[in-house]
Amino acid sequence: MTKIFTPKYLEEALELLAEKHPPQPLAGGTDLLVIRKDEPERFSSLMVLEKLQELSGIHKDNGRIRIGSFTTHADIEHSPVLKEYASVLSSAASEIGSVQIRNRGTIGGNIINASPAGDLIPPLIALDAVFELQSAKAKREIPAREFFLGPGKSVREPKELLIAIHFTVPEARERGVFLKLGPRKAQAISKVMLAAQGLVHHEAIEWIRIAIGAVAPTVIRAPQTEALLQGTKLSPELIEEAKETVRSEVSPITDIRSTEDYRRDVTGVLLERALESILK
Prior knowledge:
Blueprint: E1 3-5, H1 10-17, E2 24-26, H2 32-38, E3 45-48, E4 58-61, E5 64-68, H3 73-78, H4 80-85, H5 87-94, H6 99-104, H7 107-112, H8 121-126, E6 130-134, E7 139-143, H9 144-147, E8 148-150, E9 153-154, E10 161-168, E11 174-181, E12 192-201, E13 204-213, E14 220-221, H10 223-229, E15 232-233, H11 236-249, H12 260-278
Parallel strand pairs: 1-3, 2-3
Antiparallel strand pairs: 4-5, 5-10, 6-7, 6-10, 8-9, 11-12, 12-13, 13-14, 13-15
């Protein structure tokens, strides 16, 4: 029988996690049945987080945007703050699953699952976001790009809870785009997804961050492609070179959703579309 805990305050939740055998934190639960089937031993006890109101909400203050880890995909999708300043993230949230899943699933759950196909992870890396972890004894911050170790694995310790995500408010001249390709338009795990955030001035890319999902054991940055594009005005020749460069930076696999060659080719196509969108 599974034991259920429902803490009302963050301090209470952290005390539960400090125990010798801490319960498994449960946010929206949209992946619960899948994970429980594969790893039933993780569910001898659960800690439901839905009463922790301090973990929800989107706030802009002192040049930073802070998102509580229990904030739902729907809240991120419809947030006026994110639509104005970080559309790359609200756009990604709008493409997650169904309306029901977006109303229930949370940004924290999407991150902690640590899937290389997690929709919100590429835009968070492109935004250079930071993840705030807290235990009963300490708090620490980990850059999004350093958080993931492999499929389902991260640097989070069992006694820690992801409490928030934050990033610098993008400048007015920054532009972002999120693109993904799946076997159908909705409710499907992505074959490839790409998020880009860049600063554009006089039709030139001053800098750009590119994050790609479902093409490696974790979501990755494309530093060689970023360096190639930095400080340039796009031309057909440069776009072709960038497509070839980004294809060389990914390491996709063949699985039931797609093939290695297809994923590599589509990565270049999505980059081209992202660059065209950023420069519009």
